[in-house]
Amino acid sequence: LMMLQNPACVDTLLAIFENTQDEEILILAAEWSILLNQREKAKTILEHSWQDPICNEYAELLKLSLTEDGEQMQRMAREFLKSNPGSIFAPKFRQYITRQELRPLQF
Q1: What's residue 3's pLDDT?
Q2: What is the pTM of this model?
Q3: 32 in Cβ contact with 9 (< 8 Å)
């Protein structure tokens, strides 16, 4: 928990990933970047070319959580669900779509 107060912990995780190529470590680095409000760093980490299909799907969910544009969020969620309807993360993507549809129009 104390490590999450230190932004250098993300760099430590990235160094571990470089040595191990364990993509779960990279996912953890992205999550910690988000928790430390280092959104751009998280986005950069999530651009990795994922080999593990579960990590890839979770990375897409994290990218979605970093998206601020409602229309883009809808598009990303719908594209993911078209390609991965049976994904373990599909319910979360559906929640994003439902939340966006329930938001009042802003003028």
Answers
A1: 59
A2: 0.85
A3: yes
